Each structure stands twice: as C-alpha cells, then as structure tokens.
Amino acid sequence: MGEFEAIWLVTMGDPNASTRTITTLGFREIFAYGNLGKGIAMYFSVFPVVVAVMVSIIFILRRES
Q: For the chain, what are the domain ranges?
C-alpha cells in the first residue's frame, strides 16, 4: 500500500497490468473512470487484512519479550 508513487510514476500500473496493485487500481478507477464508490471499495478491502497482520505481529512480538 505504501509503494503507490514509485509504481505510478514509472509504469502507471502497466505494461500488461504486471505492476498493478490495489492502490493503482483504486486510483485509476476513481480518477480515470470516475467511479468513486468502486475505487474507495478497493482501498477499504485491504484494510481488514492490514489490521489483522498488524495485530498478529504485535501479539508475536509481545509474546517473545
């Protein structure tokens, strides 16, 4: 999620969709196609996964200490 700028500036998510990520897909959906709802849904679909990974990492680190 944090590598949007580098990917967008170098390849804009193409060639052959090889460097597309959720962030570049959401950006393209919102600004190129004008579909705000679908673009926001793409961004928020990743949020539960990120939270779950963060909680598990914190749990593991606290357990090891």
A: 4-64
